[in-house]
Specification:
heterodimer; A: alpha/beta; D-Maltodextrin-Binding Protein, domain 2; seven-stranded mixed sheet; five-stranded mixed sheet; 10 helices; elongated; B: alpha/beta; six-stranded mixed sheet; 20% strand; disordered N terminus
């Protein structure tokens, strides 16, 4: 009887890994669309292997890449604690937004990131929210993406009806833009936060340079994809991941190229704020 | 913090630096925290070197912001040591008594020549518009007849300082690249002692032209930052009273430089923390005297190699013909 019980317990122990699906040890990165599903310490794809090896060397512990069919499955695995880092698109992120946050997002090109921008309107106009900017005649200071398309995308993400913005006009600089706004030649001056600071900061705090305008919006566009971690990841570990990945394009270009294919493009990775992938929630 | 407190604090810090550079540990900065483990225990503390520059109070306030932020994230005791110039920072870093500092291109070139791979530039600022460099601009008074570089042949010129990248080293190197020998092209040259002093000396007619730092734009778009623009915002000068006749650049922005012989995890955490700051705590960027929306991008020694090469060339030039070099210690040509 005792021998039979012992045999049964041994059998049970042998069965345990198959039924409980114990996550692999080490640092686990979840990515949709890998060549293989499941977690592998030796991905067949050379670029994926380069990324895994680079991350392992920098973290000083084993790293596995875990392949999933789609972003939803990656998010579920992150939710279940089976992943430490996940490559997610914005819709998939929504499912884990309560327990996770993005830490990095792809940068489109050398001069275009997720630019912090503002939309300024005259206080007297009553246009003090993105929604109230509907039908505005926007004023821009450049056709560069950082001063035009990126802020427009940000405004749209925050609920502004940017399709109703017309006609667009472009002026020499932020000073000319404010003059045009004050002259009634436009309804919203859309510029980077840096340009607003140059425009309104002055050097004498007693002189108010922009007292007649209001920031109807300030923000960055929503990150459409990103590298996501659980909120309970220790802070130093989170920043270590940021520090490793922001230089990935310089230190291991093929690894960056690999991640870019999973992130929908990008030449490098920029850090993000915690709410970067929460559309309209900021 | 009031002015007096800043002055007292700066004085104490200066004393601290003197002791620090003398090899004494009177500042209590090198006692490791016994509760630390792993890479944190190995590093023990994070010592930052800050050059006082022209405004020690502002420098101290800026670095105090970094100090508090990095202490929270790394868990390390973070101390800021001020020195009157880059040389003090470089010497302290060379002797292993600092982990981190921000310095200009020329100072970094000096540090690299002294320490080799033991230091590396690892982050530099970038504006929201993606600009990550600055320029050297040769300016003249708008009411002068000078409109091109050639017009200034045989005229007087004000440099900023021997150790200034945009006010001395880089424009001289760029002129030579164009076939212009700066030591014979101008009739008289002198050091103004600072970027602000250069503009004021030009305004007062002491020079026909001066070099100055310019950023926040390009030669095509025009500039928004630099001593001329700062003085104009203060009402001391009008930008329209001056004309840019020649520019050199861009040069990469002043790098944060870190000792590489510290644990890799420390380097990565520090870089990650600083790179994330503009996104997670954008309000601190104003305290750091950086434009809103700016961020920090990773940089490598290759980004600053031109500065190292320029410095070597300049030193070789000085050794070759010391008698022809600009006078020092006076802003008067």
């Amino acid at each position: 009887m005792i021998r039979a019980l012992g045999f049964f317990l041994i059998l049970l122990a042998l069965m345990q890994p198959a039924t409980a699906q114990t996550p692999p040890a080490g640092f686990r990165v979840g990515i949709a669309g890998l060549a293989e599903t499941g977690c592998a310490a030796a991905p067949s794809d050379a670029a994926a292997a380069a990324y895994r090896k680079h991350l392992e060397g920098r973290l000083g512990k084993p790293v596995v890449l875990c392949g999933y069919e789609d972003g939803k499955a990656v998010a579920t695995a992150l939710q279940d604690g089976q992943l430490d880092l996940a490559v997610l698109d914005q819709p998939s992120f929504e499912a884990v937004s309560k327990i996770a946050r993005p830490i990095l997002a792809p940068r489109a090109d050398a001069i275009t990131g997720r630019v912090l921008a503002v939309a300024l309107a005259l206080k007297s106009s009553g246009r003090d929210t993105p929604a109230k900017l509907a039908g505005s005649r926007p004023i821009f200071i450049s056709k560069l993406a950082a001063s035009h398309s990126v802020p427009l995308q940000g405004l749209a993400d925050y609920g502004a009806d940017t399709k109703s913005f017309k006609p667009e006009q472009f002026v020499l600089d932020e000073h000319a833009g404010l003059a045009a706004l004050r002259a009634g030649q436009g309804d919203a001056l859309i510029i980077t936060a840096g340009a607003r600071q140059r425009l309104c900061r002055g050097d004498d705090p007693k002189i108010v340079l922009c007292g007649d305008v209001v920031e109807a919006w300030r923000g960055r566009p929503t990150a459409q994809t990103g590298l996501v971690v659980r909120n309970d990841l220790p802070e130093a570990d989170r920043y270590q991941l940021v520090g490793i990945h922001v230089a990935l394009h310089q230190e291991r270009p093929e690894a960056m190229t690999f991640l870019a294919t999973k992130l929908g493009g990008g030449i490098a990775l920029d850090p993000t704020e915690a709410t970067a992938m929460q559309k309209g929630a900021r | 913090m009031g002015v007096k407190q800043v002055q007292k604090s700066t004085w104490l810090k200066s004393l601290c630096v003197v002791l620090f550079l003398s090899g004494l540990s009177a500042c209590g900065s090198d006692k490791p925290d016994t509760e630390l483990t792993g890479w944190q225990k190995e590093v023990g503390q994070l010592r930052i070197g800050a050059s006082q520059g022209e405004d020690s109070g502002m420098t101290l306030a800026r670095w105090t912001t970094y100090q508090e932020y990095l202490n929270r994230i790394t868990g390390l005791k973070v101390e800021v040591f001020q020195a009157p110039d880059y040389n003090g920072i470089i010497q302290a870093m060379a002797s292993g008594q600092l982990e981190l500092a921000q310095m200009g291109n020329t100072a970094y070139a000096n540090a690299r020549e002294q320490m080799g791979d033991k230091v590396t530039p690892f982050l530099a600022s970038r504006t929201a518009e993606g600009f990550s460099g600055y320029y050297s601009a040769l300016i003249v008074r708008a009411d002068s007849p000078y409109r091109t570089l050639e017009d200034l042949r045989g005229k007087s010129l004000g440099y900023v300082d021997f150790n200034s990248t945009s006010g001395y080293l880089f424009p001289r190197w760029s002129l030579r690249q164009q076939g212009v020998d700066p030591d014979t092209f101008f009739s008289k040259t002198a050091m103004s002692g600072g970027h602000t002093q250069s503009v004021l000396a030009l305004a007062n007619g002491q020079f026909d032209a001066v070099f100055m730092f310019a950023s926040g734009g390009t030669p095509e778009t025009g500039f928004t930052s630099g001593s001329l623009y700062t003085l104009a915002r203060r009402g001391a000068v009008k930008v329209s009273d001056y004309r840019i006749v020649w520019t050199a650049g861009p040069m990469p922005n002043s790098p944060f430089v870190i000792r590489t012989d510290r644990p890799q995890a420390f380097l990565d955490v520090t870089r990650g923390a600083m790179a994330a700051l503009p996104y997670e705590s954008p309000q601190l960027m104003v305290e750091l005297n950086l434009l809103e929306g700016s961020d920090f991008q990773p940089v490598t020694p290759a980004d600053y190699q031109a500065g190292v090469d320029m410095r070597r060339a300049e030193i070789a030039e000085r050794r070759a013909a010391p008698a022809q070099k600009p006078s020092t210690g006076s802003a008067k040509p």
